[in-house]
Each structure stands twice: as structure tokens, then as C-alpha cells.
Amino acid sequence: MTFDQNLDRVLVRYEELQALMSAEPVPLAEEFAQLSKEFSELGPLVIAINELRGVQAELEGVVMMLGDDDSEMRTMAEEEQRGLQAKLPDLARQVQLMLLPKDSADSKNAILEVRAGTGGDEAGLFASDLFRMYQRYAEGKKWKFEVMGISETGIGGYKEAIASISGTDVFQRLKFESGVHRVQRVPVTESGGRIHTSAATVAVMPEAESVDIFIDDKDLRIDVFRASGPGGQSVNTTDSAVRITHLPTSIVVSQQDEKSQHKNKAKALRVLRARLYERERQMRDAERAKTRKSQVGSGDRSERIRTYNFPERRVTDHRIQLTLYQLEKVLNGELDEFSEALLADDQARQLAEIE
């Protein structure tokens, strides 16, 4: 299908939706809501297409004027032609971007998991730095950041930290954060001043609703146990901690932050649902391409995606070769420069695949 044929298809569908919504008898409420949603989503694209075609039509008219015997008219037509031709590439690109298939998960909330990797205590401290970085980023975006569980190392670091982040387009802005984050700095425990390299892994998953993922109770093994804190000291005296094992996939989720077994179970199910949803997304992506390209890079959590170098105060994203000498700002949650560049690069890759 050519670019123009694709635009015609959109315009025809837009008119169909208008007719269906105004048809007699009036569609049922659920059907009408679906039609209305699709109609409103196509609206901005239709406006962009009409603007593009309006300029194309103007250009055709101007080209006809270029053969005019009046030299003054020809000069005016040439000037107008240059102006219209300058507009066309940007308008066409805008329409192309709007035509790109949307990631159905972009508008979803997210489950964030940060885990210490190689590097011992320093890796745990770095994991806590990253977790706070995302918390500050969420605060700046006016998102809700709910800590779901933290396993501490005892010296201020985190073995693992999990949070739920909710707001507008959360997953779209955070989905490129999954992978290995590396830090280069002198640990506080290093007396010789040597720079060490440590790592932490980040996983960002769209938070799935029950309609997205069905979990059969018979596929779950649920164990309860007594919660404990760092060093093994008792947190409470009841078996309130919950461990859920999804038998078909062997995915295990534990929650013990709440004093209520019921609340811990609910939290664990949220995390499990997100992991299963992400697993399904990855399987679908693998079917479309042997190498996963739906996210910048492979999206593999074993892939090193970013390095935070303290001596040089720089942060480098290795997927798009972007380096910012703004380490403090980035760790303080100012991630937009990276997220915007990653989104733009992803769009450019998708456009290259269809051109």
C-alpha cells in the first residue's frame, strides 16, 4: 500500500465512523464508546492529512501559474512554490509519525524493578540511587510513585526495590530504561581512592489489568510465611508475607511490606500480572523479529544500556551514543533529554523500516 493509499484509507475510515455513530438505531453504549474512541484518536491524524493535501493542492495550482506570460505573476508563483515546497517535508513526516503503529502499552502505568548486580555493596548503593532517581522523575511528572517492596543491604543500599508508577503515558516514557545500568566511581568503602565499576538491572513493565492477563487460580501456588527485616529481625509475629509461584512459567513473586496477608497477596498479584504481560509482549515481539526491536536496542535486561561516570560527571546512553555531562541533574530525576532522544530514535527506526 502506497503512502497516499494509506492516507485515503484513514479518511475513508473516519467517514465510516461518523456514519456509524449517527446511524439509526443508535449503537449500544459499549459499541458507541469504542467507535467514539477510534474517531477521536483519528481526529488529529485527519487534520494533519488535510493540511498536507491542502498544501499539495496549492502547489499544483502554483505550478500551473508558472507558465503564465506575465513575468511578475511567474515571479510570485516561483516564490510561492518555494515556500510550499519547504513546508511539504515537515508535514509529510508529521503524518508518517502519526501513522506509525501505536504500542498498546504506552498509555499504561508501570511496575518498576531495580536490582543490585555485580559489585557487592557498591552495587546495592547504586541500585538505591537509581530507585530514587526514578522516584524524583515521577515526582517531576506529577505521577504517583508507590513503593511496593524494598530489600535492603543494611548499609543504605538495595538488593531489590519494586514500585508501581501511575499517571499519564508512564510506560511510554520509561520503557527504554530496562537493561543494565553501570556506575563508575570510588566507593565510600574504598580507602585507596580506586574507581570501581558496579551495575544494577532495571526492569520496567506495563502494569496489566485483569482484562489483559487472565490468571487461573489453579496455576498458582501460594505460600505464606513470617516477614523479616534486614539481618533477620522479626517484622511481625504473624504469617503475613506471601510468596506466589506461577506454575506454568515458574515465575515467583514475594511481598512482605504490608502487615496484612491480604494486602501482600494483592501486591504480589499486581507484580505477577505485570511480569506475565511483559513475557507475552516479548514473545509476540520475538515472533515478528528474531531480534527484539520494539524498544531501542534489544531491550534485553542483560544488555548494558547506560553508564554513570562520577569522576567525569557524565552519563552515556550506549544505544544512541548520547553523553550528557549532567550527572547530578540526571540522578536528581531529570531524564527527559534521554527519554525524548530515545523516543525520537525509536520513531526514526520504525520509519526506516517502512520506507
Notable traits:
alpha+beta; 11 strands; 8 helices; 46% helix
Would you kindly provide a written description of the structure presented here, covering whatever features stand out?
The chain is α+β, with helices and mostly antiparallel strands. The chain is built from eight helices and eleven strands. Helix 1 (3-21) packs across helix 2 and helix 2 packs antiparallel against helix 3. Residues 230-235 and 290-301 have low confidence and may be disordered.
- Compute the separation of the termini in Å: 11 Å
Mean pLDDT: 85
Shape, please? flat
**Strand content of the residues, in percent?**
15-25%
The biggest sheet amounts to: 8 strands, mixed
Q: What series of H and E elements makes up the topology? A: HHHEHEEHEEEEEHEEEHH
Q: Radius of gyration over alpha carbons?
A: 26 Å
Number of helices: 8
What class, by secondary structure content? alpha+beta
- For the largest beta sheet, what order do the strands appear in spatially? 2-3-1-5-4-9-10-11
Number of distinct beta strands? 11
The level of helicity is: 40-55%
Low-pLDDT residue spans: 230-235, 290-301
Provide a brief overview of the structure.
With 355 residues, the chain is of the alpha+beta class.
Layout of strands and helices, then pairs:
Blueprint lengths: L2 H19 L7 H37 L5 H29 L10 E7 L3 H21 L3 E9 L5 E9 L3 H5 L4 E7 L10 E11 L13 E6 L15 E6 L4 E5 L5 H28 L15 E6 L4 E4 L4 E3 L2 H5 L4 H19 L1
Parallel strand pairs: 4-9
Antiparallel strand pairs: 1-3, 1-5, 2-3, 4-5, 6-7, 7-8, 9-10, 10-11
Helix pairs in contact: 1-2, 2-3
